Request: fold
Amino acid sequence: MKKLFAILLTLLLALSVAACAPAQQPAATSQPEATVQPVAEEATPAPAQTTAPVQAGPLNVAALKGPTGMGIVALMGQEYASQYAVTLASSPDEVTAAFIVGSLDIAAVPINLGAVLYNKLEGDVAMLAVNTLGVLYILENGDSIQSIADLSGKTLGATGQGSTPEYVLNYLLEKNGIADAKVEYYTEHSELATLLTAGDVKLGMLPEPNVTATLAQNADLRVALDLTAEWSKVSDTKLVQGCIIARKSALEGREADITKFLKDYEASTAFVNGHHKKASILIEQYGIMAKAALAQKAIGKSNIVCLTGEEMRAAASGMLQVLFEANPKSVGGALPGDDFYYGA
Reply:
């Protein structure tokens, strides 16, 4: 009897343990639920973090020392640093290399180089503005040259062989029926300027601001011919020498930035043209020219402009047509298509 009672007691205890087991199960599963929720919150970024647009940096802009740099000087101050990173170069080759590899968004270059890059980069270039008209002048140590016709039979020193200055000079000589002028080309503006200053060359063609700097060194030198004025006598097109270009691929989605840049650049050119003394101080400060006094004198002869849209297209396309007829290679072998002219 006692043995039977012990067996029954053992069975009752086993049943009690089994009955209690389901009541413990919720407690066992509630612990993972409590720890999963914080992990899920940390792993999922907030909506504001995933949808906020990436902020574009400043536009990388390059200009050459001289008129193109002079025109952009008002945008080189600290107040524009977050919008434009402006660098200066001494030669078009420096700008070309940086533009091709994509380290520049915008560049101020000679007009023929803009067309060359358009062809080289298979149309991935747009002209934003014409920024410089004619800056070429003929200096003389003497008083024998009063018109283009007076260049007949003369020897003229010049720079810019194989680029716009050569084709401009050739165009003017041809239009005026002069076939016997001899032109001797020098590689550097500074070399010709030195020879003119010393009197070793009596007649020479130079661009601004080299003209002003050279005149300051020799009181016997004078401006004999303004080639922009001479151009207007024989051509229906404007004499255009500089433009502002951009890489189309680099500017996708930044149309608002480009619109603002063009407005700011136009305001900068207006400031420079309207306030020679104030602008010249900045031009020296930023290293565009060595001396403010010379810059102040050069601004008025540098034809700094900001032509956009249809006005830009009319001026630039006419000039490129002249260059193409002179030498197709000067514009990269072919005239740019309509897509070259931004906003026109």
Observations:
- The chain has 13 helices and eleven strands.
- The mean pLDDT is 85.
- The first helix runs from residue 2 to 43.
